[in-house]
């Protein structure tokens, strides 16, 4: 019995180790002097500690310094890509959450002709794999002259994604009507009820869906790869891919690549520190309904 | 459109009718509430779906005008060995992922369920899922490097054979599957854990009274009661596995010698490297149909398992 418990904890401990160790190895590589990466490859702590890799991927060192630190000399500016990613994620989360909440509220609470048909259409859209709409969407965004612009980047997911509407509608359906009716008696209009009653009462699910949409936007790769290739609209994930291509095949710039990867993980870590409990608990609602 | 919605026939009996609104006055509000989402839906879901269908019947290189070729693309698909190979590889990757993810996730979820409610543990397990797949792929590209990667150093130190991983045709697909499993197993475990929390504790108390051991309790109680949740996780995982792209694009680029050219990557290449939009659209539509059938079958299984539970 006791041996069983110890074994069970050992398995969980191993799972945590396997989860966390690769991240440690990433940071450890990023903090190692490139010239010594291969000589002390097996030590768990950077033997030749340096900030140089972060400095050069952030575009803070001169060309000569970057090359001395093991870079190819290609210009890198992860500050810019980090900013692009943050703006992209923030805009998508803010606009999409509000727009979808409004639609979900109408579908849950307002009476109008064609409501069921519209909801069915949204649910049907949920089943279509993104690559099917991606090809025509690329052609559309290109024809509109929106390639390499923020507008083109956010366009397909800015105003709605079926899942967000679906998720929020489920929640609005469960809100008690009495509270809304009381607000109406106090003279609130439809917009007033939505803005001052329904939204505040849904703070939990709204934050949950905003977090999920934020994570997805942060991880996005394929669409930004197609639409945001130039510097001004290049997000972090695309920049990492470009960085890998610039790095020689025979001897990849591992220290620089790991420094860049670390930069893409830091915001996620912060998110986990602030919202860890909510994120861990949010899975109760999202997957299983 | 506006007129019909605004007039909103009172055929619908409003269950909840705000005092301020005149009969059917909600139609106008509803339209305003729905307008942004409707624009997004029409422009980026509805229109592209119709256009995608049309594109699959054309030959188009993105520059000149699309040329109507009827079903030529589909005829070519039927005899394209790479298309069938891509489907097989996608299936192979999906099976590897499902077996790895679901057994490991079940184990982790069961252990957490019986041992700890720790939020720190759950948040830690969620970490790989939060990280961009591009960063995950880069990280494992380094860890699995054929010469100097940590994993090979470890194998070497233990006196075992080293491996090519992403560089070896036979090992590349399993390596990709291992990486995606690593990235999502914690997330799947938390979904299953959430499902386990819904099982009433009285069932476990009864089992304990009967003297059932942990393993027996898991197979006789937890697993059967979890079947609806498991089925849902299965549907979501299969859809996710069919759409694997980022890891392939960064770690293997479909290689070596097409050993990891899964369907999503093949579609992407045809469309944006070879500029064969029509052919890519035909493949994408085939994927819609395949996923539709798979989902339908799984839904049927899920319903069957529901009725089993009574």
From TrEMBL, chain A:
Its main location: membrane. It is a multi-pass membrane protein. It comes from the Bacteria. PROSITE patterns: ABC_TM1 (PS50928). It is found in: Cell membrane. Pfam families: BPD_transp_1. Residues 82-275 form the ABC transmembrane type-1 domain. Signal peptide: none annotated. The chain crosses the membrane at residues 7-27, 86-107, 119-140, 146-168, 254-275. Keywords: Cell membrane, Membrane, Transmembrane, Transmembrane helix, Transport. InterPro entries: MetI-like, MetI-like_sf. Belongs to the binding-protein-dependent transport system permease family. PANTHER family: ABC TRANSPORTER PERMEASE PROTEIN MG189-RELATED, ABC TRANSPORTER PERMEASE PROTEIN MG189-RELATED-RELATED. This is Carbohydrate ABC transporter permease.
From TrEMBL, chain B:
Pfam families: BPD_transp_1. Keywords: Cell membrane, Membrane, Transmembrane, Transmembrane helix, Transport. The chain crosses the membrane at residues 30-47, 91-111, 123-143, 172-194, 225-245, 277-297. InterPro entries: ABC_transporter_permease, MetI-like, MetI-like_sf. Coiled coil: none annotated. Residues 83-298 form the ABC transmembrane type-1 domain. It is found in: Cell membrane. It is a multi-pass membrane protein. The keyword Mitochondrion does not apply. Belongs to the binding-protein-dependent transport system permease family. This is Sugar ABC transporter permease. It comes from Actinomadura luzonensis.
């Amino acid at each position: 019995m006791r041996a069983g418990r110890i074994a069970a904890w050992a398995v969980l401990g191993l799972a945590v180790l396997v989860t966390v160790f690769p991240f440690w190895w990433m940071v450890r590589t990023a903090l190692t002097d490139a010239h010594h990466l291969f000589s002390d490859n097996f030590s768990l702590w950077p033997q030749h500690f340096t900030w140089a890799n972060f400095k050069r991927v952030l575009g803070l060192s001169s060309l000569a310094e970057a090359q001395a630190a093991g870079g190819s000399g290609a210009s890198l500016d992860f500050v810019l890509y980090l900013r692009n990613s943050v703006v992209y994620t923030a805009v998508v989360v803010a606009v999409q959450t509000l727009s979808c909440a409004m639609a979900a509220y109408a579908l849950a609470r307002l009476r109008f002709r064609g409501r069921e048909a519209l909801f069915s259409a949204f649910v049907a859209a949920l089943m279509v794999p993104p690559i099917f709409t991606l090809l025509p969407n690329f052609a559309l965004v290109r024809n509109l002259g929106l390639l390499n612009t923020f507008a083109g980047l956010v366009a397909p997911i800015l105003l709605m994604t079926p899942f967000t509407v679906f998720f929020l509608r489920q929640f609005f359906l469960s809100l008690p009507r009495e509270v809304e009716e009381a607000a109406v008696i106090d003279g609130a209009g439809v917009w007033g009820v939505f803005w001052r009653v329904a939204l505040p009462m849904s703070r939990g699910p709204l934050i949950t869906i905003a977090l999920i949409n934020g994570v997805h936007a942060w991880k996005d790769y394929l669409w930004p790869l197609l639409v945001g290739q130039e510097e001004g609209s290049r997000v972090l994930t695309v920049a990492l891919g470009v960085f890998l291509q610039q790095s020689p095949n025979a001897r990849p710039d591992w220290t620089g690549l790991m420094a860049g990867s670390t930069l893409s993980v830091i915001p996620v870590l912060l998110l986990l520190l602030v919202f860890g409990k909510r994120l861990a608990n949010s899975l109760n609602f999202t997957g299983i309904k | 459109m506006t007129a019909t919605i605004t007039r909103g026939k009172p055929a619908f009996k409003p269950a909840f009718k705000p005092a301020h609104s005149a009969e059917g006055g909600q139609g106008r509000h509803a339209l305003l509430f729905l307008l942004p989402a409707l624009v997004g839906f029409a422009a980026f879901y509805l229109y592209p779906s119709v256009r995608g269908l049309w594109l699959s019947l054309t030959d188009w290189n993105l520059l000149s005008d699309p040329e109507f070729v009827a079903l030529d693309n589909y005829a070519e698909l039927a005899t394209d060995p790479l298309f069938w190979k891509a489907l097989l590889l996608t299936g192979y990757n999906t099976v590897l992922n499902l077996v790895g993810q679901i057994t490991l996730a079940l184990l982790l979820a069961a252990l957490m369920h019986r041992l700890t409610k720790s939020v720190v543990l759950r948040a830690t397990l969620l970490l790989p899922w939060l990280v961009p797949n591009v960063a995950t792929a880069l990280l494992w590209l380094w860890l699995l490097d054929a010469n100097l990667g940590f994993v090979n150093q470890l194998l070497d130190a233990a006196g075992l054979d080293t491996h090519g991983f992403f560089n070896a045709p036979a090992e590349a697909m399993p390596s990709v599957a291992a990486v995606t499993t690593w990235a999502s197993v914690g997330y799947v475990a938390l979904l299953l854990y959430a499902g386990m929390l819904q099982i009433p504790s009285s069932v476990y108390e009864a089992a304990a009274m009967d003297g059932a051991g942990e393993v027996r309790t898991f197979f006789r109680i937890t697993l059967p009661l979890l079947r609806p949740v498991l089925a849902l996780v299965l549907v979501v995982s299969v859809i996710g596995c069919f759409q694997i792209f980022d890891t392939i694009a960064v770690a293997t680029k479909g290689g070596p010698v097409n050993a990891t050219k899964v369907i999503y990557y093949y579609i992407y290449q045809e469309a944006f490297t070879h500029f064969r939009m029509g052919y890519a659209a035909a493949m994408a539509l085939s994927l819609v149909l395949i996923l539709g059938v798979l989902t339908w079958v799984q839904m049927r299984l899920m319903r069957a398992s529901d009725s089993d539970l009574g």
